[in-house]
Every structure is written in structure tokens, then in C-alpha cells.
Amino acid sequence: MASKKQPYYILLLLILAGEAVFILPFVLARVFRPTVLEVFNLTNWQLGICFSIYGIVALLSYLFGGPLADRFEPRKLMSLSLLATAAGGMYYATFPDYFGLKLLYGYWGFTTIFLFWAAMIKATRIWGGNNRQGRAFGFLDGGRGLVGASFGLIGVIVFAFLLPEEVGTANMGERTEAFKQVIWVSTAIIAATGIAVYFLLKPQGEQVSDKNLHQTIGKKEIRQVLKLPAVWLLMVIILCAYTGYKTTDVFSLYATDVMLMNEVDAAKVGTFLLYIRPVTGVLIGFLADWTRGALLLVWGFIIMLIGSVVFASGFFGPSTVLFFFLGLLVTAIGVYAARVLYFAVLREGNIPLALTGTAVGLISVIGYTPDIFAGPAMGYLLDASPGETGHQHVFWMLAGFSVIGLLAAIRFQRISKKND
Fold this sequence. Notes:
With about 425 residues, the chain is mostly helical. It contains 19 helices and no strands. It has a single domain, classed as Up-down Bundle (Growth Hormone, Chain: A), CATH 1.20.1250.20. The protein is globular.
């Protein structure tokens, strides 16, 4: 695997690129969900359908993009992905209708996954070497969280600056124009990141092409990967953990529907949530290098289960703001801990480095299906039972997935011990 001399600026580039590529399709909708619904004239269900279309395209992109990452340099694949995603932002800023938005999310499902995802995971695994897998993926996910939070904060500042001092008095035109500027700033940052990756990720790319690339990926290699029990368990683990991550999309809406906050304060809640991610990622990453990542994965699901049950109980309201943030913190720690670890344990699962891209692609086909069903499911639950009741139903759904993920993580931990 990679030597300990791998420079940290490579990891910083991976962190920046790893979150920048998802700003337009996901981060903005997470931080500004009430605003997105309003300016695009969408229901929760319709926004969920957009996410679902993204997920369907991404599903095929994971499958075919995985082997691609075992053949070509990460910098070339990732750079092209970022530039193509930024091009979609130019169309997003025109505020297309519902049909156009569905086409755009399908396009983003291809640009953000086919060339990008497996290449980023493989490059990160190589950077981590034999002894820094937890640190590598902890910094990657935690750093991505910090980047996402920073983008969210920048977006909130731009949005608030362009609105009247009394946010509630802003008309539709003012809200739309303010959000358009947020889109343009995000698009410019993504494009600049794509250019930086192409020119500055060269050392990592050269090392990958020297030693860690398969010239061909065929049925034999795919069968080899599918014979590994860890691969199948990681499919289930990622599916459940990623459902938890998708659920964080509704926290800003929860702030308006249940906590009765205005749009700017709700966006601040979404941004606060993003800042929990880097702290959790870094701490969990270091802990994973000192102990077993598989064990920490089990605890991540336990914490996620506790947080989801508390939210599902309907405990929070406008008079319990402090407890709301405490519950948000607990749930987010569980979600982000599981998210950090599910690729950090590839080595514990005895998955060969040279087939990392193929394994990641196959695992992701099942693991990231929440991109297809989570958005519509949450949208249906929220629209069918407006207000607090709908949110309770969403968190009961999360509790169910937490239990399934916990059982799979316990099984994975037992298998990883046998691989020692």
C-alpha cells in the first residue's frame, strides 16, 4: 500500500473535492430546504422524486464507475466530474421547472458518481496505507463535513445579506434572486476545485498508476469480490447508515415545522448539523486507528438508534430548544460515526487494495439505494402527515434501519476478528 510519506495536501484536495461535488445536488437542499421548496415551487414528495432519479442514475454509475477507478488515475476522473457537475449548476441557476429539475438531478447522478466516487475512495485508501485507514477516512468524511458546513455558512451569509433586514418581509422575487447568487457562488467554487484537482493531485495519480491499477477488470475479478462475506455485509451496513445520513436532510425543515423557526434560523440549524460532522469524523478516525473500526461501527448504530427513538417520541417543541440541539447532536454523532467507518473497514474485511474500485462500486450499488427510496419515502411521510406527526414517522423509519444496521455491523465485527 502507500508509504507514510504521502503528503497531507493530497488528503486536503480529496476532502475539498469530495464535498464540493455534492454541494449543488445535496448540500444546498439540506441547508436551504424550505427555500428550495418555495423558489422551485416543489412539495417534499417532488423534491424526493428528484433525489430518487439521482439515485437511479447513480446506481448504474456505481456499478460501471467502480472498475473504471481501477484503470485510470483519480485526478483525471475526479476533475472531469467536478467540471461537469459545475456545468449543471449553470442550468440550476435558471430555476428550471419540475421536469427540468428531474433531468438535472439525473445528470448529476451521472457526473457526481460515475467518474468520481470509487476514484476518491481508492485514492483515500491508498493515502491511508497500512496503519492510517481510520485517520484517512475520518479526515476525509470529517473534512468533507467541515467543507460542507463552510459552504453552508457562506450560502447563509450570501442569502441573508441579499434579503431585507426583516427576513419575513422578503417577497418571492427577493428570495429567488438571493438563492440564485448562492447557486452561482457554489458553481464557481466547484469549477475551481476541478481545475485544482487536475493540476495538483498528480503525485497521488502517479503513485496509483505505478502500482495499484488493474489493466483489465473482468468477470473473474468481480466474482472474486462477490465471494467476500464482508462485501455483502457492507452493502447492508452502508444502506442503513446512508439512510441515516439522508434523514439529516429534514432537520432544517423540522426546525420550521416543529420548532417554529424562520428560514434563516432553520438554515443555521442545517449548518450547525454540518459542523458536527468534521469533529465526529476526526475523533472517530483516530479512535479507529487505536482500536477496531468494526467495533466503533457497532456503537455508531447504537447511538443512531437512541437518537432516532428520542426524535420519534415527539419530545421536542418550541419550548425545548436546548434539548432539541442536544438530540440533534446525539443523532448526528451516530450517523456520522457510521458514515466515517463503513469504508475505513475495507482492510478489516480483507478486501484487496487492487480491487478497491470494483468492490466499492459493487457495494455502493446496494448501499446507496437510499438515494432512490429515502427522499420519496420521507417526502411521502411528511406530506401525508403535516407537522410533527410526519417527522415522527420519518424517525421511526430511521430507528428500523438502525436496528438492521446494528445487526449487520455485529456480524461484520465477528468476521473481521477472524481475518486477523
